[in-house]
Amino acid sequence: xxxxxxxxxxxxxxxxxxxxxxxxxxxxxxxxxxxxxxxxxxxxxxxxxxxxxxxxxxxxxxxxxxxxxxxxxxxxxxxxxxxxxxxxxxxxxxxxxxxxxxxxxxxx
Length: 108
Ligand code: HEM
Hints:
With 108 residues, the protein is of the alpha+beta class. Helices cover 32% and strands 15% of the residues. Protoporphyrin IX containing FE is lined by residues 15, 18-19, 24-27, 44-45, 47, 49, 63-64, 67, 79-80, 82-85, 87.
């Protein structure tokens, strides 16, 4: 597994910046005030945000990564690209950072 410098706090910062640190509606800022383990186990509207295969967490296949790139189907539901509403899409470089952090098994 590739070693990376990125930590959970960095992911929380990227997602906070994506919504201008606001208390967004609908599902809320689900990455705030949770542990790394709680974050990894998060499901939103029946959609697990992290994809795991044979016990390995997979970045590019994770709904969290895919939904930042475009609309997805997940857990039986159809979802628009995130962040929805007034916020612009994340820069691909930041999405890639999140994806690589997941591939590195979400280091704390
Ligand atoms: C798999 C993960 C996610 C799912 C399934 C999901 C699902 C949804 C759904 C169904 C809505 C309502 C859409 C609408 O009103 O048209 C929504 C709204 C929103 N989501 Fe997500 N979302 C996810 C991840 C994220 C992430 C990572 C962010 C931030 C980077 C985000 C930011 C937002 C924002 C800002 C809104 C609008 C909230 C408001 O009305 O105040 N979502 N999301």
